[in-house]
Design a protein that fits this description.
This protein has one domain (23-161): Endonuclease, Chain A. 39% of the residues lie in helices and 15% in strands. The chain is built from 4 helices and 6 strands, in the order ααβββαβαββ. It has a 6-stranded mixed beta sheet, with helices on both faces. Helix 2 (23-34) packs parallel to helix 4.
Length: 165
């Protein structure tokens, strides 16, 4: 399928897509702040520049967009019909980088939470409550998604070993 936009227009459109301060990230940050948690943002010295860093709890939070991080089984992810090969490779590289960053954070002793865009869209208040509960406990990993059975699925498995997320 041929793209309906010329290269210059497509480039201008794609350049406006933000990498940080996304709506899901802002909702999570606002909820954590109101719950009394203080954090830093996008720590450049940490692997993957986590979206939220909570040093007091030795925890980091990655807020993943379902499209850009290829959330399999999610209603918000669909492989584009144009330039499918390009997008397949690009999104697979994003997933590989995510897994490497999570593994690096864990090897440095950080607790890692991944909050998917669909979890925030499903119910941001519930997502924040589950994240707060995780922060107050000792579990090392958390994955919040809004696409599995139930209104908000919490997955506490080791994320690095799951190559399908």
């Amino acid at each position: 399928m041929v793209d309906v936009m010329d290269a210059a227009k497509r480039s201008a459109l794609m350049s406006r897509i933000r990498g940080g301060d996304t709506a899901p990230e802002l909702l999570i940050r606002k909820g954590l702040w109101h719950a009394g948690f203080r954090y830093t943002l996008h720590a450049a010295k940490l692997p993957g520049k986590p979206d939220i860093v909570l040093p007091r709890w030795n925890a980091v939070v990655f807020v993943h967009g379902c499209f850009w991080h290829r959330h399999s089984g999610c209603a918000y992810f669909r492989l584009p019909k144009t330039r499918t090969a390009f997008w397949d490779v690009k999104l697979a590289q994003n997933q590989a980088r995510d897994r490497a960053n999570i593994a690096a954070m864990e090897s440095l002793g950080w607790r890692v939470a991944v909050v998917w865009e669909c979890a925030v869209r499903t119910n941001s208040q519930v997502a924040v409550k589950k994240l707060v509960r995780w922060l107050q406990r000792t579990e090392t990993t958390l994955e919040l998604t809004g696409t599995s059975s139930g209104p908000l699925n919490v997955n506490r498995r080791i994320l690095v070993r799951n190559s399908s997320y």
